[in-house]
Structures are given as C-alpha cells and as structure tokens.
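## Example pair
The file below holds two records. Each record gives the amino-acid sequence first, followed by its structure token line.
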Amino acid sequence: MYFSEFQHLVDVYVNERDWKKYHKPKDIAISVAIESSELLELFQWKPDPLESGKLDRELKARIGEELADIVIYSACMANALDIDLSEVLLHKIKKNSRKYPAGKVAKAKDWDEIRSIRSKLSEKNGDD
C-alpha cells in the first residue's frame, strides 16, 4: 500500500465516525505527543530489551500498536492541513540524504563524527 492510500483510508475512517469536527491541528499534535509518550513509557526504567539479542513478542506487539497510533494521528494531521504525506516524506528523505550522505556517514565511528560531518556540510551548503 502506498502512503497516500493509507492516508485516504484514515480519512475515510475519520469521516465515517464524523470526527473531523474534533480534528483541530492543535489537538492532533497533542495526540501525537501523547502516543509518543506511550511508546517511550514501554522503555522507561527498564533494561534495553535488545541487549539480550531478541525482542520479547509481547513488547514488540505493544511497540507496534503505539507506532500505529502515532502514524494514524500523523495522517489525521496531514489530512486536516491538506498535506500529501507521500510527497513530504519523499522530500524529507531526499533532504536528509543530502544532509547525511551515505558515503560519508556510513564510515563514521560514532554520532559525534556524524554531527561533525553534518555541521561541515551545513556550513558549506548554507543549510539548516
């Protein structure tokens, strides 16, 4: 499924329930933050679940649920503001590819070196 199809599916879901009247950008942004916090809560005060080399099936399912909520609310926000997520996602990945060229950052030894590469490219290109 293309993201535009998913975005349309979310729009249909919301319309069938007559929820558009509640979908103000401020409220949807709050909902994205709440769902993101629920995702973080799955990890709070617990050991890294991947230290053992595998992720518990129940935790993985719960992470998936929270990620789904975040993406659904993001699609709601895009619909409320008439933003084509497929278009902006492609634009953003291209922008990030310029900011973090694979040939340079893949060889970096740590995040500090990646930040240094990014900083030098930013100064050179006048990016943000």
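Second record, same layout:
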Amino acid sequence: MMRDVMQNAGLEIFAEVGLLIFFGVFLALMVRALMMRRGEVEEVSQLPLQEPEPQHGEVR
C-alpha cells in the first residue's frame, strides 16, 4: 500500500531536478578546471605542501 502511495505521489520530478543540478555543477567544475591557466594549476597543486601563514598575533 505504501508503495502505491509513493508511486502516485508524483515525486519523480525531485529526482530529475536533483540529477540536473548535479550534472550542471559537475559540468561547471569541469569547464573551470579545463580553463585554468598553467600558473594557477601550479599554485593550487602546491597548496597541500605549504606551511600555513601565521595569523595576526600568533607566535610560532
């Protein structure tokens, strides 16, 4: 009975909208990654290896 209620509730549009949002964000990130300049790629690739900058008032 619950299956019939859920099938007839018309909720499939939410799944379709969620899928479209996912693919839209995925495509936007792919375009951004492919359009980056080589200098930006080098800078971003070194981020995990850099020591963090001391914050204002922080002593190391």
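Notes on the second record: The chain has a mean pLDDT of 86. The radius of gyration is 23 Å.
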